[in-house]
TrEMBL record:
<feature type="binding site">
    <location>
        <position position="282"/>
    </location>
    <ligand>
        <name>Zn(2+)</name>
    </ligand>
</feature>
<feature type="binding site">
    <location>
        <begin position="144"/>
        <end position="147"/>
    </location>
    <ligand>
        <name>GTP</name>
    </ligand>
</feature>
<feature type="domain" description="EngC GTPase">
    <location>
        <begin position="105"/>
        <end position="252"/>
    </location>
</feature>
<keyword id="KW-0862">Zinc</keyword>
<feature type="binding site">
    <location>
        <begin position="196"/>
        <end position="204"/>
    </location>
    <ligand>
        <name>GTP</name>
    </ligand>
</feature>
<dbReference type="InterPro" id="IPR030378">
    <property type="entry name" value="G_CP_dom"/>
</dbReference>
<dbReference type="Pfam" id="PF03193">
    <property type="entry name" value="RsgA_GTPase"/>
</dbReference>
<feature type="compositionally biased region" description="Basic and acidic residues">
    <location>
        <begin position="321"/>
        <end position="335"/>
    </location>
</feature>
<comment type="similarity">
    <text>Belongs to the TRAFAC class YlqF/YawG GTPase family. RsgA subfamily.</text>
</comment>
<keyword id="KW-0699">rRNA-binding</keyword>
<feature type="binding site">
    <location>
        <position position="290"/>
    </location>
    <ligand>
        <name>Zn(2+)</name>
    </ligand>
</feature>
<keyword id="KW-0378">Hydrolase</keyword>
<keyword id="KW-0547">Nucleotide-binding</keyword>
<keyword id="KW-0342">GTP-binding</keyword>
<comment type="function">
    <text>One of several proteins that assist in the late maturation steps of the functional core of the 30S ribosomal subunit. Helps release RbfA from mature subunits. May play a role in the assembly of ribosomal proteins into the subunit. Circularly permuted GTPase that catalyzes slow GTP hydrolysis, GTPase activity is stimulated by the 30S ribosomal subunit.</text>
</comment>
<comment type="subunit">
    <text>Monomer. Associates with 30S ribosomal subunit, binds 16S rRNA.</text>
</comment>
<protein>
    <recommendedName>
        <fullName>Small ribosomal subunit biogenesis GTPase RsgA</fullName>
        <ecNumber>3.6.1.-</ecNumber>
    </recommendedName>
</protein>
Length: 351
């Protein structure tokens, strides 16, 4: 194995070691994926080298490495296998396939950026928290534009009170001290990602975190030894603090995929109440003995949170139905195809 300290600086965690067998512990080289185009990946090695590695053409899309993944190389430098992800961020795939599509691997902390101006929406934040929790990623709410808020302190407190986050920070990304406010999560080897609506200050914040050395667009300026600079594309790049910023085009928008675990965690208070309702299948509407409604009436549960929980649950049900329907359609098609083939065979047999 390579130098453990160098690996740790790249985001390696010792719990990955449990995935290696004895031979691999001796000879295999872990490398991290900094970018991918589906056919090849750009990898970072502990020795500091960076290069492209082709993927076998037969690689199934679901097995393709993602930005942030750890791969094991054989001693000769060939790809051996991908290590199981510690965490992931997934979103709903575009098009007809509604399933969750992972887009980033091994992210430690997701910064969910939300403006304290008109952008402020605890329900949208809860959606991001569900996504993070589903993939076991820590989530920190970053509240921007305090200068445009009527009562930023009150807004911060209301977010602080929500379950499912790992911290709330208010900052103005245009100010020099913005990076310092996030320092607890920007430690050496930590991998962070940033999501949030358009215009909330993500790019401004990324430029601030990068200290002006790296653009927020993923372009890394790299010396080529001849005194001038070339730009290589990368979705994972180092910040001056020693942390890694993972940022891919399109990743910043929110489309929640299958996330029942995440939902259960972010709304654990409501789910706990729901277990106390008189009826097992209580819809928490007009039923007698409903503990959820009782909590709302007693002022212990924000009706907004209840509405959002219902909404996200319904969405999850729709996703599940769509998947079942797709499988059904698939089966129908194959049944039909078999029938056509049989008819054809019969006809050929007869003629
Ligand atoms: N008043 C105020 N303006 C801010 C603050 N943070 C960012 N801005 C401004 O808001 C505008 C949008 O900021 P961006 O960093 O481009 O936002 P973004 O989230 O990257 O937006 P997209 O690229 O569309 O996703 C810029 O003009 C920033 O200067 C803040 O805390 N207060
Ligand atoms: Zn109920």
């Amino acid at each position: 194995m390579d130098d453990q300290n160098a690996l740790a600086r790249m985001g390696w965690h010792n719990d990955f070691l449990t995935q290696l067998d004895l031979e691999e512990l001796e000879t295999a080289r872990p490398v991290r994926v900094a970018d991918t185009d589906g056919r090849s990946v750009r990898i970072l090695e502990a020795a500091g080298d960076e290069r492209r590695l082709g993927l076998p053409p037969s690689t199934h899309p679901a097995d393709r490495p993602l930005v942030g993944d750890w791969l094991l190389l054989d001693p000769d430098g060939g790809l051996r296998r991908r290590l199981e992800r510690r965490t992931h961020l997934a979103r709903r795939a575009a098009g007809t396939a509604e399933r969750a599509q992972p887009m980033a691997a091994n992210v430690d902390t997701l910064f969910v950026v939300m403006g304290l101006d008109g952008d402020f929406s605890p329900s949208r934040l809860e959606r991001y928290l569900v996504m993070a929790r589903e993939g076991e990623v820590d989530a920190v709410a970053v509240l921007t534009k305090p200068d445009l808020a009527k009562d930023p302190e009150n807004a911060r407190r209301s977010i602080e009170a929500l379950p499912g986050h790992d911290g709330v920070v208010t900052l103005d990304p245009r100010h020099d001290d913005a990076a310092a406010a996030l320092a607890p999560w920007l430690t050496s080897g930590a991998t962070v990602a940033v999501m949030g609506s358009s215009g909330v200050g993500k790019s401004t914040l990324l430029n601030r975190l990068a200290g002006g050395e790296v653009e927020a667009t993923g372009g890394v300026r790299k010396g080529d030894g001849k005194g001038h600079h070339t730009t290589t594309h990368r979705a994972l790049y180092p910040l001056p603090s020693g942390a890694w910023l993972l940022d891919t085009p399109g990743m910043r928008e929110l489309r929640l995929g299958e996330a029942t675990e995440g939902l259960a965690e972010v709304f654990e208070d409501i789910e706990r109440l729901a277990r106390q309702c008189r009826f097992r299948d209580c819809a928490h509407e007009q039923e007698p003995g409903c503990a959820v409604r009782a909590a709302v009436e007693a002022g212990d549960l924000d009706p907004r949170r209840l509405r959002n929980w219902h909404k996200l649950l319904r969405e999850q049900q729709r996703l599940a139905e769509t998947e079942a329907e797709q499988r059904e359609r698939h089966r129908d098609f194959h049944r039909y195809a078999r029938k056509v083939m049989r008819t054809k065979r019969d006809q050929t047999g007869r003629s």
